[in-house]
Amino acid sequence: MKQFSNRYIFIFSTVMVISVATLLSLAATLLQPAQEKNLEIEKKKSMLESIGVPATRDNTEDLYDKYIKESFVLNPKGESVDGVDAFTVVLRNEQKKPIEDQYLPVFRAIPDDGEKVLILPVEGKGLWGPIYGYVSLKSDMSTIYGVTFDHKGETPGLGAEINTSAFEGMFPGKKLFDNGTFVSIQVHKGGAGPNDIHGVDAISGGTITSKGLEKMLLDCISKYNDYLFKNRN
Amino acid sequence: MGNLENEPMFSARNLKLFTAPLGMNNPITVQVLGICSALAVTVKLKPAIVMALSVTIVVAVSNAIIAAMRQYIPDRIRIIVQLVVIATMVIFVDQFLRAYVFDVSKQLSVFVGLIITNCILMGRLEAFAMVNKPWPSFIDGIGNGAGYGIILIIVAFFRELLGSGTIYGYPVFEKLGFYSIGYENNGMMILPPMALIVVGFIIWFQRSRDNSLVEK
User: Fold this and answer.
1) Pick from B41, B74, B110: CB nearest A9
2) CA angle, corner B199, sides to B191 and B171, nearest 5?
């Protein structure tokens, strides 16, 4: 192997780093609009999935306008906050604020069966990174109408199973309130009993993700407690 | 190796670069590289296939890039240069997928990080691409990626079949009516240690067929 002078090594590494940095930042900047558009469609698509409307990338925008009727932002006391667009609220940033300053986005939708549905976004921690999703509630504000979950990088085949229909399918019909008290949904290792209306089965080999999901539901939805309690019927 | 001028693109020697890692010199079962990701992504067939393809592409292209600039890379910082090439490649591909093929990028999510840390990549760059021409290096990359992928897919096949009772998401055992006669999925197969044991079986099988691989 040829011997290189220190000077050469310095120049080589400087040139390498600068060209790689230029290349990557150029790629990131040029591709950003397309990436953001994808994220927006993805967000709308998951909201639609939580009310049982299957959407493809092409018809997501139309279906979103058709089904999602209204959106607004609440504070943790359950009062509505003006001047904030619910769609642009980033839950991760809200969770860093003190609880009384947090914005809580709510979306109202009417699926084909005419049920008046409330869609609440949730976000928490899995094993490797964030997990997030949407929980939709029937008009009694307690029964789950549908859910959709997703994750940034849970282990494929284990924690990543939270976004499968097998897991999400256990949620509809479960109840968040027990005689007016908020109990959330528990994720049971070894399986929830057949008559457990507040519990679902955990994922084998995905214990930490399952626990994270349970905590996410408890933390995020309990903030809506006052609003849900006041508006139930 | 690779010093002859005007060598045909698919000469016997170049083809051997491709076939050797599939059997005799397999990165997982013989060189014992890339075990970590082999344990992580083999619970289901689908992620295993995605991972196999991604690693093959990345190792082949970064092999070719490193081989093309091998004479200009200072020996003392070669590992850093190799790492920069791999990381740049992977991030570049990731950015593109995220902009144009969003669904694939979502499936790849965790793999992107795993590709960068895969020992096979660094192993091939250091052992092969640093001393060979771009084209043989490219073939060597494809071969090693494929050799890695084959083992991944075999392991994933058994783990998914025995652990979840499905093949590529299709519920085989349910359709065959196994559950109604009392068969149950083996939950152990889902856990990472079983991947190691399955890899062990493959190594055992391979060495019992080919004695030259057995260490003295």
Assistant:
1) B74
2) 55
Residue A106 lies in a domain: yes
Query: Which uninterrupted H or E stretch holds B100?
Result: helix B78-100
**Chain A nearest C-alpha distance from B188 (Å):** 9
Shortest CA gap B102–chain A (Å): 7
Q: Taking a C-beta distance cutoff of 8 angstroms, is the pair B87, B6 a contact?
A: no
pTM above 0.80, yes or no: no
Range(s) of the domain holding residue A111? 43-231
Give the pair of three-digit tokens for residue A70.
């209204």
Q: Is the pLDDT of residue B4 over 60?
A: no
User: Is A52 contained in some domain?
Assistant: yes
Q: How far is CA B84 from CA A13, B90, B145, B180, in A?
A: 10, 10, 19, 54
State whether B88 and A34 contact (CB < 8 Å): no
How high is the ipTM of this complex? 0.71
Residue with the two structure tokens 């990626």? B145
Tell me the domain boundaries of chain B. Answer: 31-209
From the list A8, A42, A156, the residue facing B41 with the nearest CB is A156
- The answer to whether B34 and B111 are in contact (CB under 8 A) is no
DSSP string, A121-141: EEEEE-SSSEEEEEEEE-TTS
